[in-house]
Hints:
It contains eight helices and 17 strands. The longest helix is centred in the middle third of the chain and has 24 residues, at 163-186. The chain is α/β, with parallel strands linked by helices. The N and C termini lie far apart (63 Å). A hairpin with a 2-residue loop joins strand 12 and strand 13. Helix 5 (121-127) packs antiparallel against helix 7.
Amino acid sequence: MINILFIGSGEFAVPFLDYLNRKDNINIVAVVTQVDKPGGRGKKLLPTPVKEAAIRLNLDVLQPENINSSEIIDFIKKNEIKINVVISYGQIIKKEIFLCPIYNSINVHPSLLPKYRGASPIQNVLLNGEKETGVSIIEIDEKMDAGDILAQKKIEISIDDDFYSLSKKLEEEGKKLLYDTILKIEKNEITKISQNDEEATYCKKIFKKDGLINWKESSFKIYNKIRAFVKWPVAFTYYEKNLIKIYKAKLTDLEYDYQPGTIYRIDKKNFGVICGDKKLLKIEKLQIQGKKIVSAGDFLNGYPLKTGDKFISESR
């Protein structure tokens, strides 16, 4: 049995925890996750997605305020942890912790490192219109996402992929790659590859304001923002005083000589918005703030937009 300490917090880590827990030769001794934090309208203390999964799987849960504590070091040594598996945890892990296991600590990162180091690789490959990405299994180092690569798997990005569908692809390939890597570590069959820092690119944390659509940009760039931010913060614009969130759109080859942001009424159930390259971006799913997500057709039933109306970048 390979003793694992699973360290994670975010939703992306949950399928990996589920997958490893089903393997007979993997013993998840405990799960370390961040402390419960206030959330929702009532600001009640809410567990992390990983804590919820761990409870469902009857796994022991540790929630230190700071993972870099003597308590965690003692736990790793006492339980003869072979590998710390770290996925979407949300705290900097110091040398005293990541070197403490018998082997080391490894991390699953959803990009082809050294490209897209940082907090938002899935969103940023979509924002940049990349045609491929991947999963990297690396050893944890003092420098973020810069450790030696233990394994990588390339994944094709479809023009129809959004954050949800691409995350699913990365999860499916990543959990198998993680398990295979753990087995290779156990058999001492790992070949490490050092990252070339000169080839590194970085992606920043995403903020709510980043979702604002600038209709002067190209239809392709706006489309990429919509699919990258479909979970959060959701790409948004304004119609008169109403904040409009756009969840799904479709690229077209249609061109019209209107100003960016101009609405073009296609028919009774469809409309699009003119972008900076004069191309029409067809809107398929959207939401007025505070109301439910609807199709373009249902939206037009309540808000009969006409050609010449405008979506704008600020409230009037």
